[in-house]
Amino acid sequence: xxxxxxxxxxxxxxxxxxxxxxxxxxxxxxxxxxxxxxxxxxxxxxxxxxxxxxxxxxxxxxxxxxxxxxxxxxxxxxxxxxxxxxxxxxxxxxxxxxxxxxxxxxxxxxxxxxxxxxxxxxxxxxxxxxxxxxxxxxxxxxxxxxxxxxxxxxxxxxxxxxxxxxxxxxxxxxxxxxxxxxxxxxxxx
Amino acid sequence: xxxxxxxxxxxxxxxxxxxxxxxxxxxxxxxxxxxxxxxxxxxxxxxxxxxxxxxxxxxxxxxxxxxxxxxxxxxxxxxxxxxxxxxxxxxxxxxxxxxxxxxxxxxxxxxxxxxxxxxxxxxxxxxxxxxxxxxxxxxxxxxxxxxxxxxxxxxxxxxxxxxxxxxxxxxxxxxxxxxxxxxxxxxxxxxxxxxxxxxxxxxxxxxxxxxxxxxxxxxxxxxxxxxxxxxxxxxxxxxxxxxxxxxxxxxxxxxxxxxxxxxx
Lengths: 189, 264
Fold this sequence. Notes:
By secondary structure, chain A is of the alpha+beta class. Chain A has helices spanning about 5-20, 20-25, 150-175, and strands at about 30-35, 40, 45-55, 65-70, 90-95, 100-105, 115-125, 125-130, 135-140. In chain A, a hairpin with a 2-residue loop joins strand 7 and strand 8. Chain B has helices spanning about 10, 15-25, 30-55, 60-85, 90, 95-100, 105-135, 140-170, 175-190, 195-200, 200-210, 210-225, 235-255. The interface between A and B is medium-sized, with 29 and 30 residues.
């Protein structure tokens, strides 16, 4: 290949590199982080995670979506993330060079255990996928003796009606066996 | 007061029958046994619903609607069983002949027994009030929960009590009366269990609205879960009102069919 053709190819590569979005050009420049790194909650308690996608390149990214997933690394059974949140994927759009986009997910665990929550950024126009580190979520089981303050009512209801029932049964038993005593012979008769 | 010294109400044949039936229902432990089972079941349901609600596994409003619907459904079922047994049960226990020999018009007999059976759902609703109110404290819909209970409960309860009484009056067998009454209750409650997609369609919506049981249960959902206003949901109260009036008239008219007959 001549020197002139080397120069032409080099110019074309440079042109393509300039025109291409950052995701295709410099995958290493896209960074995705998830915060906080550790969460301790009780079962049913809600918490939020923040996912930040940063464009460290000098080119705008293609339109991106951020998607979260939840898994239990200690078990082979799958976790359905839709039980934890209604929205798994959020559109974050194209990120200009040097800027970042943050999305917040409210999550609500439905079973106790230790889970890993991680996020990915991806686009339909490129096969590249960027993965965050994992947030460890520890969900503790709670035992509430008096949920919503209903305990007095749920105990008092059957106790009161049961007491009434016992009184009525006792009364009917008494009238059946005790009060129907046969009058004895009249003295002096 | 009448000339013989009794008050006007107490001397009415239906009032005498009602008083006798009330004593039989509540002082023979029959009614209280049913009510005791009802409170145990309601306590278990309320505790489970409150636990789920506190863990946020179930929407708190959904928990309240479930408790209110269970309270209405079970109270209605209890009253229905009592009323379905009222005449046909007397026939099976061979006590109808003696009852028909008393100088009480058959219409008064049916009215008196129906009034006594109605105390079953009345007692159920009174017992359910603290449950509904206590579980509704969290999302602050206690007043609505109580209002749904005291509006829908009596209407659905009265309609189904009258239905049971009508079946009992015309059935020669207690089994037929009970099976038909409970069967009708299940059929009427079925549309409320339709999947959301089916009940949202025009036909599904009409089916739910014209059916007194499903309309009453849906009203509990729309007021307590969807937080709709009472004014916007007035159509759901029409069929329970109409059913309560019509079925009461039907039960009173069915008193003409009360006859000794044979148990079959």
